[in-house]
Structure formats: C-alpha cells, structure tokens
Amino acid sequence: CAIGSQLAHELHAATAAEKAARKLDLIARMGEVHGHSAMATLRFCGGFAMCAHLLRAGGRFSAMGVVDDATRRAFHSVAVPCTSDAWQQAQLPLHLGGFGVRSLQTYAAAASFASASASASAVATYYSGPALPPDPLLVSSAAALTAAQPFLADTVDTIQRGETATDGKVQQLLSRKIDEHAADEMLEKSRD
C-alpha cells in the first residue's frame, strides 16, 4: 500500500497500538511491585504518549480503542478498579481533579487539527509546485471552529489569528478546552 494512504496509516497504527497495549500490560504488572512508579509511568509514558504521534500524522485510527482499553486496564491494576464515571474523572488533568491518564479517542481531533494547521503555513512557504487542493481537514475544521465559537471563544480567536500555528500551541489550547468541558459535564452530572 502507498505511503501516506489511509490504509498505510491504519496498518502502521494497528502495529503501534498492539505494541503500546503490550507495554501497558507491563506497566500494570509493574504496579504490583511499585505503585507510585507505575502510576508515573502510566501518566507520562502510557498509551497517549506512545501513540500521540499517530494522531498528529494521520488523525483517528481504528485501533485507538485497543490502546484506550489497555490504558484503562493498567490504571485499574495500578490504582483501583473504578466505575465509568470515575474513569472519566481519572482522564482529567491533575488541576481539574483527575489523574492525567489521557484517552486517544478524546484528543484525536485536537491533535490532528493542530498538526494540519501547524504544517499548512510551512507547506505554503516551502512548496513551490502546482497549487495543492485545500486540505479537507482544515476546511472542515475551520467551519467547525466557527460553529464552536461560543464554546471556544478566545481559543478560536487565537487560532484564527494564526498566533499559535507556528509555536505548536493549538493542540494544547484545544485539549485544555476539551478537559474543561469534560469537567463541567461531570460537575453537572453530579448535581443531578
């Protein structure tokens, strides 16, 4: 299959996801001996850290669930088994009351859009060949960002002004909004 095709991305991602799942199983076993080290390893070197480059390179991939499931199993072994609501909270960053154990599925769109927007200016600067067709991700994302204006407000303004495209902060800004939205939803749910 051709390099850069969706099939090539899926095949590479599936292989990387299986490797990540095996490593997460080792992290879970490490928790039996040294829980604090296992938790730190899970947070900083776990599933999201192992596969975030795949999200930036090609967006969503079907094997993301394999990594997210292995991350959850490792968390259950290292910390404690938890309900679905507790697992949602564990995925929040520390400053929002979570453990910072990220899900690939949650941040896939932010990572992919950040990569595409950051590379768009470089492609325009360094590519001198025939005109390239518009990137469908950026076209659809621009429309989505405009529609999300009330929710994202200052983040969308910053991205559209292009202040973050070169310094790599787009994913960070979008991820922060995703985290804040998840925390707000959990808070609302707890009030019901």
What does this 3D model show about the protein?
It is globular, with a radius of gyration of 18 Å. With 192 residues, the protein is mostly helical. It contains ten helices and no strands.
What structural category arises from helix and sheet content? mainly alpha
Question: Could you state the oligomeric state of the chains shown?
Answer: single chain
- The helix content is over 70%
The beta-strand count equals 0
Please give the largest β-sheet: none
Number of helices: 10
C-alpha geometry: globular
Distance between the termini: 51 Å
Give the DSSP E fraction (strand runs of 2 or more residues): under 5%
Q: Topology, pairings included?
A:
Blueprint: H1 6-30, H2 35-45, H3 47-58, H4 64-78, H5 84-90, H6 104-126, H7 136-147, H8 149-152, H9 154-160, H10 170-191
Labels describing this entry:
192 residues, mainly alpha, 72% helix, globular
Give a quick rundown of the structure.
The protein has 192 residues and is mainly alpha-helical. It has helices spanning 6-30, 35-45, 47-58, 64-78, 84-90, 104-126, 136-147, 149-152, 154-160, 170-191.
